[in-house]
Write a structure and sequence with these properties.
Blueprint (H helix, E strand, L loop, with lengths): L1 H24 L7 E3 L7 E3 H14 L5 E4 L3 E3 L7 E9 L1 H6 L5 E8 L2 E9 L4 E6 L3 E4 L2 E2 L12 E4 L10 H11 L4 E4 L3 H10 L4 E8 H13 L3 E6 L5 E7 L10 H5 L1
Parallel strand pairs: 3-5, 11-12, 11-13
Antiparallel strand pairs: 1-2, 3-4, 5-6, 6-7, 7-8, 8-9, 9-10, 13-15, 14-15
Helix pairs in contact: 1-2, 5-6
């Protein structure tokens, strides 16, 4: 337990320091970006690389394997089932455009099970952390999922990942069936921010298909720490997952939850 507490403290410090340094040095160069040649809807910015450099340097002393959005899978020379999953800047487009939430997202998993997640909200400058068995907190204050009990009263946070085929009628019909049962639907442009809203009870459900693991790894852990449930299943694209997170009462009602949980 002491070892995990030390790792959590290290990651919390790394997230805040990297995020703070970025915010203090933002200029026109830092907000420059390009669209990916392979995935035209995916945006890469200078800020992604700056944050990743600082975060990887901060956690290098752990000698654990790292999966990071920018650098990919970085194996450790020391055998361990624990690994860090890093999204240096979740919501890159929001950041470069000043459009909405964006965050530093760092998780520690053991195999396919979350241990803890840390999210530093760059707009609100607030730090969230949590995981199964350790609770969930924002700036040290406990948070918990909502007590909404029916989808007809529930809010859904979702989105279109860059690999989602917007031109496919079948995909769009399926998406329509998934969101129809909910009272309200919101797209925030940041999976980490959306999951944090579920963890704090300001949203009821997060659902997204073919989302990358680094986008959701920390948020899943925090939702579980806040008393919620998460179902996730690997997709055909490497590191891509179908994910649902909600309070425990709503989870069985969410379309596709039974399929993903298998």
């Amino acid at each position: 337990m002491a070892e995990l507490e030390a790792l959590l403290d290290l990651v919390k410090l790394a997230a805040v320091q990297a995020g703070t340094q970025l915010l203090e040095s933002v200029d026109a160069v830092d907000r420059s970006y390009v669209h990916s040649a392979d995935l035209p809807r995916e945006v890469k910015a200078v800020a992604d690389s700056v944050l990743e450099r600082d975060i990887l340097a901060a956690i290098a002393s752990t000698k654990l394997t790292v999966l990071s959005e920018e650098s990919g899978y970085i194996p450790s020379p020391h055998p361990s089932n624990r690994w860090f999953i890093v999204d240096p800047l979740d919501g890159t487009f929001n950041f470069v455009k000043g459009l909405g939430p964006c965050a530093v997202s760092i998780a520690l998993w053991e195999g396919q099970k979350p241990i803890f997640g840390v999210i530093y909200d760059l707009m609100e400058k607030k730090l969230a952390w949590g995981g199964p068995g350790i609770g969930a907190y924002i700036d040290g204050h406990p948070i918990s999922v909502s007590d909404t009990s029916t989808l007809a009263m529930a809010s859904l946070c979702t989105g279109f990942p860059v690999r989602f085929d917007l031109e496919s009628e079948q995909s769009m019909r399926l998406f329509g069936r998934l969101v129809t049962p909910f009272a309200k639907v919101r797209m925030l442009g940041s999976a980490a921010a959306a999951l944090l809203h579920v963890a704090r009870g300001s949203a009821d459900v997060y659902l997204e298909q073919s989302i990358m693991l680094w986008d959701v790894a920390a948020g899943i852990a925090i939702v579980q720490g806040a008393g919620g449930a998460a179902a996730f299943r690997r997709n055909e694209v490497e590191w891509s997952y179908d994910v649902i997170a909600s309070n425990v009462t709503l989870m069985p009602q969410v379309p596709g939850a039974d399929r993903i949980a298998k």
